[in-house]
């Protein structure tokens, strides 16, 4: 499968800067999102935004399972969106976040069996991270320097930045730019946080 086919559903690319920062019991390498990343959910037609400066560890796959499924792979973009949804911790939104992970990684070319295994693992072992304060307060940094930084805005009630956006509309660069412009305008007027 070609890269173009794999990412056809998500026309904007995920830009990250890998840091020297290592965190957690697994001593995972971290990355800082270097450009706002939009994800279009084909189920709800909502658009989710992972903001520049958000720190991710990609897929939080524990060792020794990471020998079979490394943290970085076809599931990378879906994992970053999922990380951010867990950081936001929208009330009653954990099932949606987990379903979005499954949908996103299937879109990215992950086989059904692998996607189901990842989904089950997240359902069984990810719950204590959902909405935890440190998932928000300790998850931002400066993409240029790689240094941790405080969150640039208050934790939003939701990571959805646009609703009822068709896949065809999301494919158009001008639609994605309008969504980003609206998001930045809301941030500037503090309506988002």
* Low-confidence runs: 1-9
Main beta sheet = 3 strands, antiparallel
Order of strands in the sheet with the most strands? Answer: 1-2-5
- Output the radius of gyration: 16 Å
| Overall pLDDT | 81
Indicate how many domains the architecture comprises. Answer: 1
- The end-to-end distance, rounded to whole angstroms, is 40 Å
Give the class from helix and strand content and strand pairing: alpha+beta
Strand content: 5-15%
Q: How many β-strand stretches?
A: 6
Q: What characteristic shape results from the CA principal axes?
A: globular
> What proportion of the residues is helical, as a percent range?
25-40%
Supply the number of helical segments.
7
* SSE arrangement, N to C: HEEEEEHHHHEHH
What does this structure look like?
The chain has about 190 residues and is of the alpha+beta class. The protein has one domain. The chain has 7 helices and 6 strands, in the order αβββββααααβαα. It has helices at about 5, 75-90, 95-105, 110-125, 135, 165-170, 175-190, and strands at about 15-25, 30-35, 35-40, 45-50, 55, 160. It has a 3-stranded antiparallel sheet with strand order 1-2-5. A 3-stranded antiparallel sheet has the order 3-4-6. Strand 3 and strand 4 (about 45-50) form a beta hairpin. The longest helix is centred in the last third of the chain and has 16 residues, at about 175-190. Residues about 1-10 have low confidence and may be disordered.
């Amino acid at each position: 499968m070609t890269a173009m086919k794999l990412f056809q559903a998500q026309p904007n690319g995920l830009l990250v800067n890998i840091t020297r920062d290592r965190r957690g019991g697994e001593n995972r390498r971290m990355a800082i999102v270097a450009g706002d990343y939009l994800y279009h959910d084909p189920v709800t037609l909502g658009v989710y935004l992972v903001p520049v400066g958000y720190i991710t560890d990609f897929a939080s796959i524990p060792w020794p399972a990471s020998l079979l499924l490394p943290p970085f792979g076809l599931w990378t973009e879906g994992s970053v969106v999922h990380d951010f949804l867990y950081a936001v911790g929208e009330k009653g939104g954990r099932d949606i976040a987990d379903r979005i992970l499954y949908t996103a990684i299937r879109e990215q070319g992950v086989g059904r069996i692998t996607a189901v295994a990842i989904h089950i693992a997240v359902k069984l072992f990810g719950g204590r991270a959902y909405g935890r304060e440190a998932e928000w307060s300790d998850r931002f940094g400066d993409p240029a320097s790689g240094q941790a930084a405080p969150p640039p805005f208050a934790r939003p009630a939701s990571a959805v930045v646009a609703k009822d956006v068709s896949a065809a509309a999301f494919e158009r660069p001008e639609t994605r730019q309008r969504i980003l412009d609206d998001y930045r305008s809301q941030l500037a007027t503090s309506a988002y946080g």
